[in-house]
Amino acid sequence: MAHGSGLQRPLLDRELSGGGYGGHGDGMPHGGLGDDAPDFDASILTDSPPVSAAAAFSSPGWDATSADSSRRPIILIAGPRRSGKTSIHHVVFHKLSPHETMFLGSTAAAIPELISHNELFQFEVWDLPGDYALTGEIRLDDGSTYTTEDALRRCGALLFVVDAQEGVDDDAAELLRDIGRRVAAHAPGLAVDVLIHKIDGDALQSPEARLEAQADVQITLGRALRDCGLGGLPVAFHASSVYDGSVYEAVSKVVQRLLPQRAAMTQMLDSFVTVCGFESAAIYDVVSKIHLARDSFARGEGTADLVGDTLDVVVDVACIYTSRGAAGQEGTEGTQEAADGAGAQASAAGEEAEEGAEPAEGDPEVDDTFQFDELTESVITLQDGHTMVLRSVGPYMALVAVSATPDVASGSRLGIVDCNVDIVRKALHGLFQGGAGLSPASKSGRPGDAAGLSGLVLPPPAGRRDSRESAAAGSINMR
Amino acid sequence: MSGRSPAAMRKKVLLMGRSGAGKTSMRSIIFANLIARETSRLSATLDVEYSTVRFMGDLVLNIWDCGGQEVFLESYFEAERDSIFRDVAILIYVFDIKSAEVEKEFINYERCIKAISRDGQDARVFCLVHKMDVVPPERRKVVFHAKESEIISRSRGLDTRCYPTSIWDETLYKAWSSIVYALVPNVEALGLALSGLADACDADEVVLFEKATFLVVSSRTRRSHRDKHRFEKMSNIVKQLKLACMGSASHLDSVQIANSRFRAILVPLTATTIVMIVTPRPGPAAGLCLLNAAVARPEFDRILLHSAEGGGAAAAASAAAPVAASEAGAPADGVGASAAADAEDSFRQDAAGGDHAVPAMSH
Lengths: 479, 363
Hints:
heterodimer; A: alpha/beta; Rossmann fold; Beta-Lactamase; five-stranded antiparallel β-sheet; 13 strands; B: 363 residues; 2 domains
């Protein structure tokens, strides 16, 4: 797939009004007011044949399971009992509400779970029982067993979760030592990511207490590893909590290491941010809120958590309003309800009836499917001018871009953004087709120039921008 | 915003229940932007904590948060009886589902009911069966209904409504929306104006939220929806986002969310309200809804600010105004995006011409 165009420069309003809309006749004011943007973008601003977003979604490349199961990397979650392993697993990958993690029981046998939201995002998460030191065989909850050697060979990342409130006792240190020995023996080079979890627990309310708890864990575990000659084991520490964005941030960092296409995606986002005038941009797996790549300018610090909340809101609201139920025969019903006096709230009497009428609904939060499709989009504005633009760029993949000024979401500026989003979407599609998805980190340490890059034409360096601009303008004038 | 009506409507809201039931927690979440998990840091309320909340401009809620410890209870029913129970508009009694002393709670509840009805006032009673999150989800309905029937049987025939609540989900918004709905004046005029707006936008539904609390004040549904709890879910969802924005030192302004089936737009309507317009997709363009919201704004301002003067009739008459836009919006119904664009265009002309939609609104 050759994408001759790459990202486009943002065009000034007058350039667009000068000719861009001409071919489309209706002179529809675009952007915040327009309804169906993608078609228009692709046809005007790229010279390759337009691939509509819908086509990209349905093409076989998206859903074919690429790698056979034995090549899919595993993320192992280990650690002492009650440290929060299963909570992390459920909150990140099952969207369990954080406070409900209190109901989770302890894990008796490893629970393997296939995460396969799209072509790019395929791996298994194994939630291991507490205090399990990777000795002997791993017993899965379906009864099968797995040798630790095999598991470690396929292991892309190993999370070691400790409870920040409890600190690290001798048993926990011993556990990490045991695991470290197994890693050194069977998967040299595999990094261990220590999640210093429950960092916002009731015992750690002040920032000082948190820092202290963090330092404590780092020093204790670092010493424990050095004492038994494992000082060379690569270990990274992340503070995390299921109650805020930190657990997603930590897991994102881990998952990104498994992603050979990340460097290409980062470059793509850098260009996107530059040409569209955004502060920051990132591509998210919508289901898990893990970010697969983020621009490298690191200007979005203040809004990182907000982006996670944006994703939540978009998904939650879509869940509510996508499945309306009886939308077909609205005519009579609509007038009936409108005539229904005050009708704003279900009255207490109405409440009774409704409780009885919906036993089938059960607990909707748990079962709702993600209503995320190729036309999913969102714009959220803040009073200080910050604007968040969310666009679908693939199956369960969202591009979220943050601007410090509101004008990106106004009028034709949003049209430019949409057109560039479309290019990102197609480039990502190209990446998946060329790439082999995630690969075990122990084998390909360098995530950069993997197969995915071929076919993607990135924008030229800044010096050559002018010629590109005129080329883009030229393609418009021709129409 | 010119002359705010001086005749603010004051309503006394009594918050009762045993100590630790969660009265202050829920009040803080709804009115003081506390996050659910921060409530563990609240300390017990001593005696009565008064707070005044301005809601929707003219409505002022005087909330008497009555500490639930035994020592205070005795004085509420004896020495302070008159001052506590006089002029109560709403009694909110919070039942703690975790409580081990069920009978004692009921006895106190009956004393409250007795004190209130003895003064011969028409107070409304709302009973919140709280902390439902500790009950396993599959048992919640049974547990709640058992509690509810006992509460009703012990309410001496007073108009009593029960709601299951938890600070961890949207049920809290459901209960409090119902409570404020009982207090907001002029709901009929609001409803009519909302109908006009909904018709003009060819919307599936239009919902009016109070800005600070995100409680639902009024709504109009033109196409039925299977999820009866969606409004309080929206309250909960958007309030979380609002709080997250405040964490980032700013305030939420507007939200647009769409996919291939719907578009939801939340924009400030008046100084104290936010309106949500949900339209089908393909359907009317977002710009149509935004314009109509802007056109309807003065009308809502008028209803809300002059609510004390009972402007119901005038409101009913002028609610027809935004319908003018529906002539433009109507062809978009069920047709593709181009029709929507056309509709939008023609409406924009109307608005630009300025002569028929806008002045009608402002009398």
